[in-house]
């Protein structure tokens, strides 16, 4: 199956300069293509990838700086722009600023790359026009087929993200077919399971938190488009990057442990992007409780709810775990022992005491048990016989290779 590997790159000075040139050319192609698409949309017309790729080939004959960079990177930039415009709308796609956008470009043809292992800690990959690029090999790529490679800059360092086919397939059945667990995501405790386990971690040290606040204040006082502002923004980004990497590592480890131990993992169907929207509103209708909503948004984002869901879906491919999502309504107000729903039962962030049966338990664990019960009810209903034309239950059909299943012909249901 397809998966990603990420390594830190050790460029030479010449490669750093050339990579910056490639990133600048890709940014120029993105901005030019976006402006062209917007002009077409204003006239009621539409610009697609094929016509822009043809114009790019003509522009390379006139501009040497376009011809000096890999053409596949420029074409891939136009493909990414086409997909972004189709998914989000032409006028909602953002520009790539020379000051704020970090260079990033992709080599889409894996058959033109080669990987060699130098020693226990380092390897190198051959990229078109860049030559051999040395990277820190945190894991081996032996036996894996390269599909594409992406170079991106994060702060002062460059990173290599490789898409590979590791040759593995999703198991047809889990090693523990009868196991299941419910997971509740919270702001006080990151993960609470129906087994009574509370999993949490501090992603930023107290000193780093104070440094981040000081850098934010310093950034607000810096003059716009100044060198000091750029330095302060880079220092703040470094602090945030360390916190983000710790959060990603925590989500990956917990997701792997839950997927290995359970055949079914049930989550709440949370719309994190909508839940963390700003409450400021507009001038005509200003929002209320803006400070409290901002604090809640920061707490949700700091625990990595969405990152954990993505990591769990990725880990489930290797274990055959079924990830179910259930509505989140009343899971924190319902008693897991008697089923009574009362908002007053939630005494505090951590205490749940039922007003009917006096059942007392940690509030997040009680919610996780309710989530598990709802998820098992959903899976039980899915295994019932279905009318003709309805999709089969996920538990009745082996997972197999997702790409092969998508390529198989299917018979569409008759139109109503």
TrEMBL record:
Lineage: superkingdom: Bacteria
Domain Probable transposase IS891/IS1136/IS1341: 169-278
Region annotated Disordered, chain positions: 383-416
Start and end residues of each Cas12f1-like TNB domain: 305-371
GO biological process: DNA recombination; transposition
Signal peptide: none
Keywords tagged on the record: DNA recombination, DNA-binding, Metal-binding, Transposition, Zinc
Domain Transposase putative helix-turn-helix: 1-43
Family: In the C-terminal section; belongs to the transposase 35 family.
Protein name: IS605 family transposase OrfB
Organism: Mycolicibacterium chitae (Mycobacterium chitae)
């Amino acid at each position: 199956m397809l998966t990603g590997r990420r390594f830190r790159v050790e460029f030479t000075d010449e490669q750093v300069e050339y990579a910056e040139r490639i990133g600048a050319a890709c940014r120029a192609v993105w901005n030019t293509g976006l402006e062209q698409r917007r002009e077409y949309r204003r006239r009621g017309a539409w610009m697609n990838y094929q016509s822009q790729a043809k114009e790019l080939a003509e522009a390379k004959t006139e501009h040497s700086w376009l011809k000096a960079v890999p053409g596949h990177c420029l074409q891939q930039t136009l493909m990414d722009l086409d997909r972004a415009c189709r998914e989000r709308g032409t006028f909602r796609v953002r520009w790539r600023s020379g000051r704020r956008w970090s260079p990033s470009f992709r080599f889409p043809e894996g058959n033109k790359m080669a990987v060699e292992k130098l020693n226990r800690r380092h390897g190198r990959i051959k990229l078109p026009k860049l030559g051999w690029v040395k990277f820190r090999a945190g894991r081996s790529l032996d036996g894996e087929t390269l599909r594409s490679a992406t170079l991106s800059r994060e702060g002062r360092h460059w990173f290599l993200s490789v898409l590979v086919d590791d040759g593995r397939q999703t198991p047809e059945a889990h090693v523990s077919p009868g196991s299941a667990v419910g997971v509740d995501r919270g702001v006080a405790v990151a993960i609470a399971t129906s087994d009574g386990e509370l999993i949490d971690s501090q992603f930023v040290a107290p000193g780093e938190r104070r440094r981040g606040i000081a850098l934010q204040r310093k950034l607000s006082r810096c003059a716009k488009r100044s060198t000091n502002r750029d330095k302060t923004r880079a220092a703040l980004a470094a602090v945030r990057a360390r916190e983000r990497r710790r959060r990603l590592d925590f989500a990956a480890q917990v997701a792997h442990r839950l997927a290995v131990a359970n055949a079914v993992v049930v989550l709440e169907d949370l719309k994190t992007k909508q839940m963390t929207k700003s409450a400021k509103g507009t001038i005509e209708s200003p929002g209320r409780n803006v400070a409290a909503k901002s604090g809640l948004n920061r707490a949700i984002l700091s625990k990595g709810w969405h990152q954990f869901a993505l990591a769990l879906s990725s880990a489930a491919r290797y274990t055959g775990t079924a990830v179910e999502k259930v509505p989140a309504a009343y899971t924190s107000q319902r008693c897991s022992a008697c089923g009574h729903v009362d908002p007053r039962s939630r005494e505090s962030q951590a205490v749940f005491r039922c007003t009917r049966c006096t059942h007392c338990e940690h509030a997040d664990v009680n919610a996780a048990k309710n989530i598990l019960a709802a998820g098992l009810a959903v899976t039980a209903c899915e295994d019932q016989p279905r009318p003709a034309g309805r999709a089969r239950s996920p538990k009745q059909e082996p997972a197999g290779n997702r790409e092969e299943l998508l390529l198989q012909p299917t018979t569409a249901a008759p139109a109503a």
